[in-house]
Amino acid sequence: MKRRLNADATMDGIMRETPATIRVVLQHGMLCVGCPIASFHTVFDAAREHDQDEDQLRHDLEAAIESDVG
Fold this sequence. Notes:
The chain contains 4 helices and no strands. The chain starts with 10 loop residues before the first helix and ends with a helix.
């Protein structure tokens, strides 16, 4: 079963729950790792703040989560 990101999940929570997502965040050129705002930003917020395509970021994060699970 494919896990989906919750719309309310914060970037910090996502990275803490599935450390494999840290690589995705860094590959997107985002410096959310260790950022105090990451505990408040959702994927939508982070994508907007870093001028990223939200759908692509969400897809890449979900792929990392899925590969970590399976």
